[in-house]
Amino acid sequence: MLIRLEQKNDYREVENLTREAFWNVYRPGCTEHYVLNQFRTNPDFIPELDFVMEEDGRIIGHVMFSKAELILDDGTRRPSWTFGPISIHPAYKRKGYGLKLLQYALGKARELGVGFLCMEGNIGFYRHAGFGLASKLGVHYHAEPRDAEVPYFLAQELIPGWLGGSEATYGPPKGYFVADEHPEAFEAYDSTFPQKEKAFQEGQLPQFCQSCGMPLTSVDDCGTNADGSMNFDYCKYCYKDGRFLQDCTMDEMIEHCAQFVDEVNKQMPKPLTSEEYKQMMRGFFPMLRRWRKSSLT
Question: Which of 55, 114, 229, 247 would you label with 285, given CA atoms 20 to 30 Å apart?
Protein backbone atom coordinates (compact mmCIF):
# COMPACT_ATOMS: atom_id res chain seq x y z
CA MET A 1 0.00 0.00 0.00
CA LEU A 2 1.29 3.48 -0.93
CA ILE A 3 -0.11 6.90 -0.04
CA ARG A 4 1.25 9.83 -2.05
CA LEU A 5 0.29 13.27 -3.34
CA GLU A 6 -2.06 13.36 -6.31
CA GLN A 7 -0.49 14.30 -9.64
CA LYS A 8 -2.07 15.88 -12.71
CA ASN A 9 -2.01 12.64 -14.65
CA ASP A 10 -4.11 11.07 -11.86
CA TYR A 11 -6.99 13.53 -12.19
CA ARG A 12 -9.34 11.64 -14.49
CA GLU A 13 -8.74 8.31 -12.80
CA VAL A 14 -9.38 9.86 -9.37
CA GLU A 15 -12.55 11.59 -10.54
CA ASN A 16 -13.87 8.31 -11.93
CA LEU A 17 -12.94 6.59 -8.65
CA THR A 18 -14.85 9.28 -6.74
CA ARG A 19 -17.89 8.84 -8.96
CA GLU A 20 -17.85 5.08 -8.45
CA ALA A 21 -17.43 5.46 -4.69
CA PHE A 22 -20.34 7.87 -4.21
CA TRP A 23 -22.84 6.79 -6.87
CA ASN A 24 -26.30 6.37 -5.30
CA VAL A 25 -24.79 6.35 -1.80
CA TYR A 26 -26.12 9.63 -0.36
CA ARG A 27 -28.54 10.54 -3.16
CA PRO A 28 -29.55 9.24 -6.59
CA GLY A 29 -26.37 9.65 -8.64
CA CYS A 30 -23.67 11.89 -7.13
CA THR A 31 -21.86 15.20 -7.65
CA GLU A 32 -18.67 14.64 -5.63
CA HIS A 33 -16.53 13.96 -8.70
CA TYR A 34 -17.50 17.34 -10.16
CA VAL A 35 -16.77 19.08 -6.86
CA LEU A 36 -13.29 17.56 -6.99
CA ASN A 37 -12.82 18.50 -10.65
CA GLN A 38 -13.64 22.13 -9.97
CA PHE A 39 -12.06 22.46 -6.54
CA ARG A 40 -8.48 21.91 -7.66
CA THR A 41 -8.41 25.49 -9.02
CA ASN A 42 -10.23 26.93 -6.01
CA PRO A 43 -8.06 29.15 -3.76
CA ASP A 44 -9.32 27.15 -0.75
CA PHE A 45 -7.83 23.92 -2.15
CA ILE A 46 -4.73 22.67 -0.31
CA PRO A 47 -2.50 20.76 -2.80
CA GLU A 48 -0.17 19.66 0.02
CA LEU A 49 -3.09 17.70 1.47
CA ASP A 50 -4.39 16.06 -1.71
CA PHE A 51 -3.59 12.37 -1.40
CA VAL A 52 -4.16 9.17 -3.36
CA MET A 53 -3.82 5.63 -2.04
CA GLU A 54 -2.44 2.87 -4.26
CA GLU A 55 -2.65 -0.89 -3.90
CA ASP A 56 -0.73 -3.07 -6.34
CA GLY A 57 -0.09 0.00 -8.53
CA ARG A 58 -3.78 0.89 -8.78
CA ILE A 59 -5.35 4.01 -7.27
CA ILE A 60 -8.01 2.81 -4.83
CA GLY A 61 -8.49 5.88 -2.62
CA HIS A 62 -8.34 9.66 -2.51
CA VAL A 63 -8.88 12.51 -0.06
CA MET A 64 -8.53 16.28 -0.39
CA PHE A 65 -8.53 19.10 2.16
CA SER A 66 -9.83 22.67 1.98
CA LYS A 67 -9.53 25.89 3.89
CA ALA A 68 -12.72 26.95 5.67
CA GLU A 69 -13.80 29.52 8.23
CA LEU A 70 -15.49 29.82 11.60
CA ILE A 71 -17.49 32.88 12.62
CA LEU A 72 -17.13 33.43 16.35
CA ASP A 73 -20.03 34.72 18.40
CA ASP A 74 -18.40 38.17 18.60
CA GLY A 75 -18.37 38.37 14.79
CA THR A 76 -14.66 37.76 14.29
CA ARG A 77 -13.54 35.14 11.78
CA ARG A 78 -11.16 32.31 12.60
CA PRO A 79 -9.40 30.00 10.13
CA SER A 80 -10.66 26.45 10.02
CA TRP A 81 -10.33 23.53 7.65
CA THR A 82 -12.37 20.68 6.23
CA PHE A 83 -11.82 17.66 4.00
CA GLY A 84 -13.65 15.61 1.44
CA PRO A 85 -14.66 14.03 -0.64
CA ILE A 86 -12.80 11.00 0.68
CA SER A 87 -13.22 8.06 -1.68
CA ILE A 88 -12.42 4.37 -1.56
CA HIS A 89 -13.08 2.14 -4.57
CA PRO A 90 -16.16 -0.04 -3.89
CA ALA A 91 -14.09 -3.22 -4.18
CA TYR A 92 -11.91 -2.06 -1.26
CA LYS A 93 -14.55 -0.66 1.08
CA ARG A 94 -15.00 -2.03 4.63
CA LYS A 95 -11.45 -3.36 4.67
CA GLY A 96 -9.82 -0.57 6.67
CA TYR A 97 -8.36 1.36 3.74
CA GLY A 98 -10.46 4.47 4.32
CA LEU A 99 -9.40 4.80 7.96
CA LYS A 100 -5.72 4.27 7.07
CA LEU A 101 -5.91 6.96 4.39
CA LEU A 102 -7.68 9.41 6.68
CA GLN A 103 -5.34 8.85 9.63
CA TYR A 104 -2.33 9.41 7.38
CA ALA A 105 -3.84 12.61 5.98
CA LEU A 106 -4.77 13.92 9.44
CA GLY A 107 -1.19 13.43 10.57
CA LYS A 108 0.12 15.41 7.60
CA ALA A 109 -2.49 18.12 8.23
CA ARG A 110 -1.36 18.47 11.83
CA GLU A 111 2.26 18.81 10.66
CA LEU A 112 1.19 21.68 8.39
CA GLY A 113 -0.47 23.54 11.25
CA VAL A 114 -4.10 22.60 10.59
CA GLY A 115 -5.64 23.20 13.99
CA PHE A 116 -9.38 22.55 13.68
CA LEU A 117 -11.42 20.44 11.27
CA CYS A 118 -15.18 20.49 10.66
CA MET A 119 -16.93 18.07 8.33
CA GLU A 120 -20.21 16.35 7.52
CA GLY A 121 -20.30 12.59 7.82
CA ASN A 122 -21.25 9.44 9.69
CA ILE A 123 -19.97 9.51 13.26
CA GLY A 124 -20.03 5.71 13.30
CA PHE A 125 -17.01 5.78 10.99
CA TYR A 126 -15.32 9.08 11.74
CA ARG A 127 -15.21 8.62 15.52
CA HIS A 128 -12.48 6.04 14.87
CA ALA A 129 -10.36 8.90 13.50
CA GLY A 130 -10.99 11.13 16.53
CA PHE A 131 -14.06 13.08 15.41
CA GLY A 132 -17.02 13.89 17.62
CA LEU A 133 -20.16 15.99 17.46
CA ALA A 134 -19.18 19.59 16.68
CA SER A 135 -21.84 20.88 19.05
CA LYS A 136 -19.92 19.33 21.94
CA LEU A 137 -17.06 21.70 21.06
CA GLY A 138 -19.36 24.72 20.80
CA VAL A 139 -19.40 24.83 17.00
CA HIS A 140 -22.79 25.15 15.31
CA TYR A 141 -23.86 24.28 11.76
CA HIS A 142 -25.09 27.23 9.72
CA ALA A 143 -28.16 25.41 8.38
CA GLU A 144 -29.45 24.01 11.67
CA PRO A 145 -30.92 25.55 14.85
CA ARG A 146 -28.19 26.79 17.15
CA ASP A 147 -29.25 24.54 20.02
CA ALA A 148 -29.49 21.42 17.84
CA GLU A 149 -27.17 18.46 18.32
CA VAL A 150 -26.60 17.78 14.62
CA PRO A 151 -25.65 14.09 14.25
CA TYR A 152 -23.85 14.48 10.92
CA PHE A 153 -21.85 17.63 11.76
CA LEU A 154 -18.51 16.57 13.23
CA ALA A 155 -15.32 18.27 14.36
CA GLN A 156 -11.89 17.63 15.80
CA GLU A 157 -9.16 19.81 17.29
CA LEU A 158 -5.93 18.60 15.70
CA ILE A 159 -4.02 21.13 17.80
CA PRO A 160 -5.40 21.11 21.37
CA GLY A 161 -6.78 24.48 22.46
CA TRP A 162 -7.07 25.83 18.92
CA LEU A 163 -10.63 27.03 19.45
CA GLY A 164 -9.84 28.42 22.88
CA GLY A 165 -13.28 27.65 24.28
CA SER A 166 -15.04 30.07 21.94
CA GLU A 167 -18.40 29.26 20.36
CA ALA A 168 -18.66 29.61 16.59
CA THR A 169 -20.73 28.87 13.49
CA TYR A 170 -19.47 26.93 10.47
CA GLY A 171 -20.60 26.84 6.86
CA PRO A 172 -19.02 24.60 4.18
CA PRO A 173 -16.77 26.32 1.59
CA LYS A 174 -18.79 27.71 -1.30
CA GLY A 175 -16.95 25.46 -3.75
CA TYR A 176 -18.78 22.42 -2.43
CA PHE A 177 -22.02 23.70 -4.00
CA VAL A 178 -20.63 24.07 -7.53
CA ALA A 179 -22.91 21.41 -9.04
CA ASP A 180 -25.99 23.13 -7.62
CA GLU A 181 -24.88 26.54 -8.85
CA HIS A 182 -23.95 25.31 -12.35
CA PRO A 183 -26.25 22.35 -13.07
CA GLU A 184 -25.88 22.52 -16.85
CA ALA A 185 -22.08 22.46 -16.61
CA PHE A 186 -22.27 19.56 -14.18
CA GLU A 187 -24.56 17.54 -16.46
CA ALA A 188 -22.24 18.17 -19.42
CA TYR A 189 -19.24 17.05 -17.37
CA ASP A 190 -20.97 13.95 -15.99
CA SER A 191 -21.99 12.91 -19.50
CA THR A 192 -18.30 12.34 -20.34
CA PHE A 193 -18.29 9.32 -17.99
CA PRO A 194 -19.88 5.91 -18.64
CA GLN A 195 -23.64 6.05 -18.18
CA LYS A 196 -24.93 4.83 -14.81
CA GLU A 197 -28.48 4.52 -13.53
CA LYS A 198 -29.61 6.84 -10.75
CA ALA A 199 -31.79 5.25 -8.09
CA PHE A 200 -33.32 5.77 -4.68
CA GLN A 201 -31.72 3.38 -2.20
CA GLU A 202 -32.05 2.58 1.48
CA GLY A 203 -29.66 4.57 3.64
CA GLN A 204 -29.53 7.69 1.45
CA LEU A 205 -29.89 11.11 2.97
CA PRO A 206 -33.42 12.57 2.82
CA GLN A 207 -34.03 14.06 -0.63
CA PHE A 208 -36.15 17.16 -1.20
CA CYS A 209 -37.48 18.93 -4.25
CA GLN A 210 -35.01 21.71 -4.97
CA SER A 211 -37.86 24.09 -5.72
CA CYS A 212 -40.61 23.54 -3.12
CA GLY A 213 -38.90 21.32 -0.52
CA MET A 214 -41.30 18.40 -0.92
CA PRO A 215 -39.72 15.08 0.19
CA LEU A 216 -38.68 12.85 -2.72
CA THR A 217 -38.90 9.22 -1.68
CA SER A 218 -39.43 7.38 -4.99
CA VAL A 219 -39.47 7.94 -8.74
CA ASP A 220 -43.22 8.52 -8.48
CA ASP A 221 -42.45 11.84 -6.76
CA CYS A 222 -39.99 13.06 -9.39
CA GLY A 223 -40.37 15.46 -12.29
CA THR A 224 -39.18 14.79 -15.84
CA ASN A 225 -36.51 16.18 -18.14
CA ALA A 226 -37.09 17.43 -21.68
CA ASP A 227 -36.27 13.98 -23.08
CA GLY A 228 -38.77 12.32 -20.75
CA SER A 229 -36.16 10.88 -18.40
CA MET A 230 -36.54 11.15 -14.64
CA ASN A 231 -35.34 14.31 -12.88
CA PHE A 232 -34.20 13.51 -9.35
CA ASP A 233 -33.85 17.15 -8.24
CA TYR A 234 -37.40 18.42 -8.66
CA CYS A 235 -40.86 17.04 -7.89
CA LYS A 236 -43.57 16.37 -10.45
CA TYR A 237 -45.56 19.37 -9.20
CA CYS A 238 -42.70 21.80 -9.91
CA TYR A 239 -40.95 20.39 -12.97
CA LYS A 240 -42.17 18.62 -16.10
CA ASP A 241 -40.64 18.07 -19.55
CA GLY A 242 -37.56 20.08 -18.65
CA ARG A 243 -39.24 23.23 -17.39
CA PHE A 244 -40.68 24.67 -14.19
CA LEU A 245 -44.46 24.63 -13.99
CA GLN A 246 -44.60 27.86 -11.97
CA ASP A 247 -42.94 31.14 -12.96
CA CYS A 248 -42.48 32.60 -9.50
CA THR A 249 -40.06 34.05 -6.97
CA MET A 250 -38.86 32.24 -3.87
CA ASP A 251 -41.22 34.30 -1.68
CA GLU A 252 -44.15 33.45 -3.94
CA MET A 253 -43.26 29.76 -3.72
CA ILE A 254 -43.21 30.01 0.08
CA GLU A 255 -46.68 31.58 0.07
CA HIS A 256 -47.90 28.81 -2.24
CA CYS A 257 -46.46 26.04 -0.06
CA ALA A 258 -47.86 27.55 3.15
CA GLN A 259 -51.37 26.41 2.15
CA PHE A 260 -50.24 22.81 2.73
CA VAL A 261 -49.28 23.34 6.38
CA ASP A 262 -51.94 20.87 7.57
CA GLU A 263 -50.39 18.13 5.43
CA VAL A 264 -46.91 19.02 6.73
CA ASN A 265 -48.16 18.89 10.32
CA LYS A 266 -49.00 15.20 9.90
CA GLN A 267 -45.24 14.57 9.93
CA MET A 268 -44.32 17.08 12.64
CA PRO A 269 -44.00 16.28 16.38
CA LYS A 270 -45.53 19.66 17.16
CA PRO A 271 -48.02 21.36 14.82
CA LEU A 272 -46.91 24.57 13.10
CA THR A 273 -49.02 27.61 12.37
CA SER A 274 -48.99 28.89 8.81
CA GLU A 275 -46.70 31.76 9.84
CA GLU A 276 -44.31 29.39 11.66
CA TYR A 277 -44.16 27.19 8.55
CA LYS A 278 -43.40 30.23 6.38
CA GLN A 279 -40.60 31.23 8.74
CA MET A 280 -39.15 27.73 8.57
CA MET A 281 -39.24 27.82 4.76
CA ARG A 282 -37.53 31.22 4.71
CA GLY A 283 -34.59 29.58 6.45
CA PHE A 284 -34.65 26.43 4.31
CA PHE A 285 -35.46 27.60 0.79
CA PRO A 286 -32.28 29.67 0.17
CA MET A 287 -30.36 26.37 0.33
CA LEU A 288 -32.44 24.77 -2.44
CA ARG A 289 -30.87 24.62 -5.88
CA ARG A 290 -33.55 26.70 -7.65
CA TRP A 291 -33.22 29.57 -5.19
CA ARG A 292 -29.59 29.37 -4.06
CA LYS A 293 -28.12 31.61 -6.76
CA SER A 294 -30.81 34.27 -6.43
CA SER A 295 -30.49 34.31 -2.64
CA LEU A 296 -26.73 34.88 -2.89
CA THR A 297 -26.94 37.82 -5.28
Answer: 229
